[in-house]
Amino acid sequence: MTPTPVGMRCPECAGRTTPVRRLGTGLSRGSAPATYALIAINVAFFVAEIAAGGSAGVSFSGGGSVYHNLALFGPKIADGEWYRIVTGGFLHAGLLHIAFNMFALFILGTLLEPAIGTPRFLGIYGVSLLAGSCGALIVTPDALTVGASGAIFGLMSAAFIIARHRGLEQVAGQIGLYVLINLAFTFGVSGISVGGHIGGLIGGAVAALVVAFGERRRVGGLVEGLAMLALAAAAIAGCLVAASAA
Predict the structure, then answer these.
(1) Is 28 an annotated catalytic residue?
(2) Which end of the chain, N or C, is less surrounded by CB atoms within 10 Å?
(3) pTM, whole model, 2 decimals?
(4) Domain coverage including residue 93
(5) Is 209 within a domain?
(6) Residue of 149, 157, 190, 244 marked catalytic
(7) For this structure, is 149 an active site residue?
């Protein structure tokens, strides 16, 4: 045996170089085009709200024609305005509201999107948004509800599950603490959509489990995509049922 910097090796192996292997992405910052696009869409909607008479201040009070015509609202959805299920997730009630949500979207999106890829990220975001709308309609169907919080809570739970799935326990612990802090605010501060946050959290978790299962079983993108579509359809059906029951 021959002593080497990496331990004792046989004479034949000692003269060979050790090939370098690079592990796949865990959770790290990187390119996140969908994240930036989603932030831009949310900002564009907010500008439209202000132009239509909405609040541009720091209060959490919405207003204006865009807000009233596109916000999540059970009775209007029951009357056929189903698009509110989606558009409500891109509106915000004031400058602080959108600032908090877009900061969280930037942090979570630039962490999660490079790790799982843009299609999976968009799938999780979409399912979370729809599940958040469903949760809000179940709990407060007669209230005007806006904000990307449901989708963002879904990204939180998804990041936690993906980190655990890939063995990144320290990262998962940090994200888990972040989730707990935000849940404390959800239940401790008035005027926050508890149903929207919990619905998004559940939707994001289930969507992330689809991704984890796909990675573990190597089922392919088509199967994952169909599963995401099924989750989205279930969330939309839940929204329509909850709105009709209001």
Answers:
(1) no
(2) N
(3) 0.85
(4) 31-245
(5) yes
(6) 149
(7) yes
